[in-house]
């Protein structure tokens, strides 16, 4: 499971399982990545649930 983050500043991909981990980064600064990672971590359960719901059908 993973999530993509895309904005005018760049694009990143984070693995959600087994551990939250940055997979790719194009354009985001370290500070931006810290902020994004914090948001992803805070919503991780929701993201995993949405992933499972979307791909189970």
TrEMBL record:
InterPro entries referenced in this protein's UniProt entry, alphabetically: DUF4160
Name of protein: DUF4160 domain-containing protein
């Amino acid at each position: 499971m993973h999530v993509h983050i895309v904005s005018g500043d760049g694009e990143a991909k984070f693995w959600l399982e087994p551990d939250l981990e940055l997979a790719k980064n194009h354009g985001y600064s370290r500070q931006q990545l810290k902020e994004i990672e914090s948001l992803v971590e805070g919503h991780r359960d929701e993201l995993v649930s949405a992933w499972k719901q979307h791909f189970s059908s």
